Amino acid sequence: MSIVEEQIARAPGDFDVRAWRARVLEWSGRLFEAEKEYLQILQVANKDPDNWLGLGTVYLREGKTQEALRALDTAVGLDPKRADLRMAHGRALAAAGNRKDAQLEFRRALRLDPANQEVRVAQKSILGEPKNELRVGQEDNAFNFLYPNYDELVSLQTQWNRHWNTTFIGNFFQWGPAHAGKFEASIGGQLPKWGGLTIGGAAGHDSGVLPKNEAFFELDHGWKTSKTGFARGLEVTYGPHWYWYRTARVLALEGTGLLYLPRDWTFSIGVTEAQSHFAGLGTQWRPSEIVRLGFPILQGEEKQIFGNIFFGTGTEDFASIDQIGSFASQTFGAGLKFAITVRQDISPYASYQKRSQGKTDTNFGLSYGIRF
Questions:
Q1: d(C-alpha 225, C-alpha 223), whole Å
Q2: Pairing state of beta strands 149-159 and 266-278?
Q3: CB-based contact 288:272 (threshold 8 Å)
Q4: Per residue of the chain (372 residues), what is the pLDDT tens digit?
């Protein structure tokens, strides 16, 4: 303060030095004096957003929320492309109880300065990280050789802490006269230096069309490769999945490589080698592959839409009896993920599968997810 006072004595008309005096007063807890100093400065230098930012910050510390909002509104209006002004405005909105607009300002600040960790901390402090995701969905399969199939899904995923999560899934099927259902549960954890490990299984009322029991585990590991290059990161998952039917057994060895690209694009390749064992028919190994390209369609301040297209060959998922056997197939599909809010999304998708012997399967699905 003594240095600032000395400079003011030398140049009393230097409002940059006067602004530093106001900042030092605020840092010292002398809020009334800081407010008075800023108001005097703004009588002359009212086109500098830093002065309005300083006054708004003092008002917030004094508990004068509406006055802070007015000051920070003016600051943002003078320079809408500054992340620090957006962040301060978001904090004032949050203090006023307007969490929705506060989150909107924090997202604007992150678009202007994606590496700003202070904004991310402020954003999380408003709503907190959701621990649960509840998802419900409906999927319909129309065959040209069989009655249609219908599948309803409900799932709950909980992130208990940074290391552990659980997932519970219920599926309910209507396959012509057959009604079936299964329950799946899994637990996942983060292993230092190794990545993620998930272990789970499923059981239920199979009605002859589903596996009676399932078991699986999956290893997941990712690497950051570059912040500015073409490949930003790589994630690899691998694991076996066992299916036990009434008349067959299947072991699927599944691996996927996911490449993170600039501007939120992704590209993945999945390979499955499945061993099917039918009573009296011996053992067969069948490969299948799928490639998927994900891309943003709309990235607005409140609404976001992501799309994906995929192509697969032999893309049996082994979750139902019609997906195992010796047929060959090609599958074309696409999907969308429409983020209604930060915590809600709707995801429609569709695919068309051409099988050998002139058989086809047209698939439509829709799911809704909410995080809390």
A1: 6
A2: unpaired
A3: yes
A4: 889 888 888 887 788 888 988 999 999 999 999 999 999 999 998 999 999 999 999 999 999 999 999 999 999 999 999 999 999 999 999 999 898 899 899 999 989 988 888 888 887 777 667 899 999 999 999 999 888 999 999 999 999 988 999 999 999 999 888 899 999 999 999 987 789 999 999 999 999 889 999 999 999 999 988 878 889 999 999 999 999 998 889 999 999 999 999 989 999 999 999 998 887 777 888 899 999 999 999 987 567 899 999 999 987 777 787 777 767 899 999 999 999 887 899 999 999 999 988 999 999 999 999 999
Residue showing tokens 């003016």: 74
Residues in the chain: 372
C-alpha distances (whole Å) from 155 to each of 136, 170, 349, 367 are 7, 6, 18, 11
Q: How many CB atoms lie within 10 A of CB 267?
A: 15
Domains of the chain: 2-127 (1.25.40.10), 132-371 (2.40.160.60)
- The owner of tokens 């065959």 is 143
In the block, tokens 């492309």 appear at 81
Picking from 26, 104, 110, the residue whose alpha carbon sits closest to that of residue 68 is: 26
Output the pTM of the full model: 0.70
- Farthest-apart Cα atoms in the chain, separation: 100
Output the CA torsion 230→231→232→238 (10° steps).
160
